[in-house]
Amino acid sequence: MPLTTTMTSTSSLRVSDKTAIGNRTIRKLKIRLLPWLFLLFVVAYIDRINIGFAALTMNHELGVSGQQFGIAAGIFFFGYFIFEIPSNLLLHKIGARIWMARILLTWGILAMATGLVRNLHQLYVVRFLLGVAEAGYFPGIILYLTYWFRRSERSQAVALFAAAVPIASIVGAPISGAILDHFHWMGVSSWRWLLILEGLPAIVCGLLTYFVLPSWPSEARFLTPEEREWLRAELADEEQQKLERHDYSVLQALVSGRVWYLIAINFGMMIGLYALIFWTPQLLKSFSGLYSNSTVGLLVMFPHLVGLVAMILVSLSSDRHLERAYHAGVPGLVAGAALLLLGWFHSPMVVVALLSLLAAGVYSFLSPFWAIPSELLAGFAAAAGIGLMNSFANLGGFVGPYLVGVMSGWTGGIHSGLALAGIPLVISGSLLLLLPKEARSHRISSAAED
């Protein structure tokens, strides 16, 4: 079990004392856990998306077409899909410290191996295996946060963790551009050095994770016994309330209509997210052959900076109002509209502005959306349900890049493919606004109780 009872009891404490203990505990959790989880996800995301920058020179050297690049970028998610639910169940069973260390080490090795491929088919194989290695990381951390944070803090915790998605591009884009322009050591292509060098941090972080990441609150030596007991009591009370309302078994979670409704929503959003991540470098490079790779890296940063700010503001508002559907749905509609408009405008300034709106929408969607399943499911049902949602929805990470690649081959440009990818985002945003009234009324009543 994630939580164990200690000798200390909070039943005799005054309300003011409990509040002080609670505030101190949450502050410690944010300082001790979130920065490390954030760093790990930055490393993970850079290894997942740096192929978008490598493509600026890799595609020519390996003879990769736009459609083939879409497959290479997206095939990652098939490996992710197959192994994600087993990975999440294993994390819940054996603990995050061991399992997260294993994930980091294996994906670091395979990320570096991507820089050694000699042809397109080897690229497909290594990208698929990279997805297998990383499977379960994101939903595993979403599950892990439910062991430590109450629902009133969870959206902010997810947002601080998920902020690694835009930060990975903000940090990784200029570094990747600089490597492509300046690293040609020993006659080895710069795109190979890009993939090899950016895979190393995952191995280092994997070794450190085993020693610094506690699996459960009962292992948290940075908390006092009094603080561990407060956290145990608070989370146990929320867990019991979830079981009383929905008491899902693992099987029920896997066949739940509501879970599949959320899968459909996230699938559409992932199409937009990975179209943005994998194709933005090539889109900006297409404006002018005079842009250096370093310049493209700097241009890529701006939309992600806008997305980061929007993401934090929306997550704070979502937690303050304890409302998720509108806080995720409206950004989804904004992102979809931005993608649709990318099909009509080819001015660099307008395109960067639309990419900024797209980034603001897809990043703002993440934290309020992922607060929804964690409020419905508990225990192994949460592990299975969250893993199922992320694994199926992330197939959108294949569909998005592949769709853009196919359309770019047909039309001779990226714009039409990006515009087509906007349609699923509009549908996803609309589905969130139409979330069944039972779910929305539950959240409203919970907010009233709090």
Provide structural commentary.
The protein is mainly α. It has one domain (15-449): Growth Hormone, Chain: A. It is built from 21 helices and no strands. The protein has helices spanning 15-32, 34-49, 51-62, 66-74, 76-94, 96-114, 120-134, 137-146, 151-162, 164-182, 190-212, 225-246, 250-255, 257-285, 293-321, 325-342, 348-376, 379-393, 396-411, 415-433, 437-449. α14 (257-285) runs antiparallel to α17 (348-376). The chain is globular, with a radius of gyration of 22 Å. It starts with 14 loop residues before the first helix and ends with a helix.
Q: Approximately how much helix is present in the residues?
A: over 70%
- Give the amount of beta strand, in percent: under 5%
Average pLDDT score? 82
What is the CA-based Rg, rounded? 22 Å
Tell me the CATH superfamily: MFS general substrate transporter like domains
Residue runs with pLDDT of under 50 for 5 or more positions: 1-11, 440-450
Q: How many domains make up the coordinates?
A: 1
Alpha-beta classification: mainly alpha
Total DSSP helices: 21
Element order: H for helix, E for strand? HHHHHHHHHHHHHHHHHHHHH
N-to-C span: 26 Å
- Sheet bearing the most strands, described? none
The CATH architecture term is Up-down Bundle
Number of distinct beta strands: 0
CATH T-level topology: Growth Hormone, Chain: A
CATH class descriptor name: Mainly Alpha
Form type: globular
